[in-house]
């Protein structure tokens, strides 16, 4: 019998845990060739599971008595709360009892725990968070989107290589276009970091480097992999999220004025499709790449759909042997 991929889920992480984490796990086992280990307070998780019909052999509850809050010091929380849902889930991955982990809990604790417990791949200077930004043609993979705020050029070169491997194998984009975020398209533009990184990427083998990209051109789909340090990446990400929400709110307000309501019915389907396209729940989360196993950081406000799609990322990542391919590339 074919071995199914096993994903550990931090059932207590996120704004709507464990309601949405449990529901997402149930939806995942129904749609995907995957087994789930829900980690957290056993009685609470089992009470949620009792609401659903599912294959009982495919979801296992692993008890963890503690929960790491978003207001706690990441390093101290990982070291002190050994029986937290996050630490127990990470150890399942470390010990080979799960192929990957999904958590919507504290970002700092997840990244710290992943580094301390799972560890980096040999040769990887810094693991990085990758986030899918919707663009006119599909998605751009933004790496790093917040894990490393201070970077060296060598780190960014590795981000480019890891992002290229991920996009090509998980999203099926052959020879993805890689671009470096900068304030201008010209080679000589930017600060010392971007200039040095440009030189490295220009000479790097195995990636399709197309030069600099200005942030305003990211939504046009000019690059499949967008490389930057975590400070710049997180700024781009949060501005994009806020701008998208503001545009939708303004548009909705204008349409609901007076006689525009009649036209709103005609435009209902296009707007619905556009909202779906911009919906981060379709992706599920940001992969933390460069570790010995996959760690997916789901948004704190993730719903069941987002958790299911985060699990899907783990399945695709494992099936495509991203770890092995990154080892070869780095």
Fill in the keyword field for this structure.
single chain, 330 residues, alpha/beta, Isopropylmalate Dehydrogenase, eleven-stranded mixed sheet, 11 strands
Question: What features would you describe in this structure?
Answer:
This protein has 330 residues and is an alpha/beta fold. It folds into 2 domains: 160 residues, Isopropylmalate Dehydrogenase (3-Layer(aba) Sandwich); 152 residues, Isopropylmalate Dehydrogenase (3-Layer(aba) Sandwich). Strand 1, helix 1 and strand 2 form a beta-alpha-beta unit. Helix 6 packs across helix 7.
SSE layout and pairing:
Layout (H helix, E strand, L loop, with lengths): L4 E6 L8 H13 L2 E7 L1 H8 L9 E5 L10 H7 L4 H10 L5 E4 L3 H12 L9 E8 L2 E6 L9 H18 L6 E5 L10 H12 L4 E6 L11 E3 L2 H26 L4 H7 L1 H11 L7 E4 L4 E4 L6 H16 L2 H8 L1
Parallel strand pairs: 1-2, 1-4, 2-3, 4-11, 6-9, 7-8, 7-9
Antiparallel strand pairs: 5-6, 5-10, 10-11
Helix pairs in contact: 1-11, 3-5, 4-5, 6-7, 6-12
Total number of helices: 12
Order of helices and strands: EHEHEHHEHEEHEHEEHHHEEHH
CATH class identity of the largest domain:
Alpha Beta
CATH architecture of the largest domain: 3-Layer(aba) Sandwich
Task: Give the DSSP E fraction (strand runs of 2 or more residues).
Answer: 15-25%
Gross morphology: globular
Query: CATH homologous superfamily of the largest domain - what is it?
Result: Isopropylmalate Dehydrogenase
Question: In which order are the strands of the major sheet placed?
Answer: 3-2-1-4-11-10-5-6-9-7-8
Which spans of ≥5 residues are poorly predicted at pLDDT below 50?
none
Q: Which class of secondary structure composition applies to the elements?
A: alpha/beta
The beta-strand count equals 11
Let me know the average pLDDT. 90
Tell me about the largest β-sheet.
11 strands, mixed
Q: Kindly provide the radius of gyration, computed on alpha-carbon positions and rounded to a whole number of angstroms.
A: 20 Å
Might you state the CATH topology name of the largest domain? Answer: Isopropylmalate Dehydrogenase
- First CA to last CA: what distance? 34 Å
């Amino acid at each position: 019998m074919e071995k199914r991929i096993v994903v550990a889920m931090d059932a207590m992480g996120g704004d709507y845990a464990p309601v949405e984490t449990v529901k997402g796990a149930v939806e995942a086992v129904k749609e995907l060739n995957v087994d789930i280990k829900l980690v957290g307070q056993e009685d609470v998780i089992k009470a949620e599971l009792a609401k659903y019909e599912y294959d009982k052999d495919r979801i296992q509850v692993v008890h963890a008595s503690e929960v790491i809050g978003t207001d706690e010091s990441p390093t101290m929380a990982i070291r002190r709360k050994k029986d937290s849902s996050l630490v127990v889930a990470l150890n399942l991955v470390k010990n080979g009892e799960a192929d990957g982990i999904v958590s919507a809990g504290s970002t700092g604790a997840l990244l710290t725990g992943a580094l301390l417990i799972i560890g980096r791949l040999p040769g990887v200077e810094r693991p990085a968070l990758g986030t899918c930004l919707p663009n006119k043609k599909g998605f751009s993979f933004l790496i790093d989107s917040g894990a490393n705020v201070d970077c060296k050029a060598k780190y960014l070169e590795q981000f480019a290589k890891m992002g290229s491997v991920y996009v090509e194998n998980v999203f099926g984009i052959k020879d993805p276009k890689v671009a470096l975020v900068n304030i201008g398209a010209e080679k000589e533009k930017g600060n010392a970091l971007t200039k040095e990184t440009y030189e490295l990427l220009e000479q790097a083998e195995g990636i399709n480097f197309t030069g600099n990209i200005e942030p305003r051109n990211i939504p046009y789909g000019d690059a499949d992999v967008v490389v930057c340090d975590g400070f710049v990446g997180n700024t781009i990400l949060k501005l994009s999220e806020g701008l998208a929400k503001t545009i939708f709110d303004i548009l909705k307000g204008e349409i609901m004025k007076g006689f525009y309501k009649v036209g709103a019915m005609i435009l209902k389907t296009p707007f619905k499709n556009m909202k779906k396209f911009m919906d981060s729940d379709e992706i599920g989360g940001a992969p933390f790449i460069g570790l010995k196993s996959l760690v997916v950081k789901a948004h704190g406000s993730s719903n069941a759909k987002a958790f299911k799609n985060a699990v899907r990322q783990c399945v695709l990542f494992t099936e495509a042997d991203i770890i092995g391919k990154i080892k070869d590339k780095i």
